[in-house]
Amino acid sequence: xxxxxxxxxxxxxxxxxxxxxxxxxxxxxxxxxxxxxxxxxxxxxxxxxxxxxxxxxxxxxxxxxxxxxxxxxxxxxxxxxxxxxxxxxxxxxxxxxxxxxxxxxxxxxxxxxxxxxxxxxxxxxxxxxxxxxxxxxxxxxxxxxxxxxxxxxxxxxxxxxxxxxxxxxxxxxxxxxxxxxxxxxxxxxxxxxxxxxxxxxxxxxxxxxxxxxxxxxxxxxxxxxxxxxxxxxxxxxx
Length: 238
Hints:
With about 240 residues, this protein is mainly alpha-helical. Helix content is about 70%, strand content about 5%. The protein has 2 domains: about 15-80, Arc Repressor Mutant, subunit A, CATH 1.10.10; about 85-235, GntR ligand-binding domain-like (Four Helix Bundle (Hemerythrin (Met), subunit A)). A hairpin with a 4-residue loop joins strand 2 and strand 3.
């Protein structure tokens, strides 16, 4: 009897490494590959239908993002556990980085293409909140914040893309999300996780509106306010 693989076969293509990394990142976000799961490279290569070379490169990307760590003399990788202290550390740094990125993006202004992408990602986040789709939501959420970093036109700000990807994915990991839902409900029975997502959506829109209006101070303040809210929520994620 053949056991269905948690990672479906991938089509070969020019961006195979990115495809492999994205598929594995999605599996970590939706809980198919939970914290502590060990991934033997030989088995993974067979499941994905790829050679060891692109797989190693994809795993290196995820290790750089902080989602995996190598064990067993680099023959195996393990999905890391991201706890509330880790989230706090990441988002304290992101408050500075995201604020600066939004400020610089407002100074430069969005191109028509960037403005269109921002609206598309706002729509994606809204549509993936109800019904809730953690993978789709995380993809849009990550792209949204990475897009602002790119629009800053500052290479040092852009170099924090791995931090953005990891800290975003950590919020959507099932175990972290379950802790947050239970903790928030215990603190305030009238507060739901859906309300948290809705409030986040309002804040995302405020950041974009300030950037489009070419108001650097307002954009920075909106971005910092958004991250500060996540910092306040960090203790609930574990």
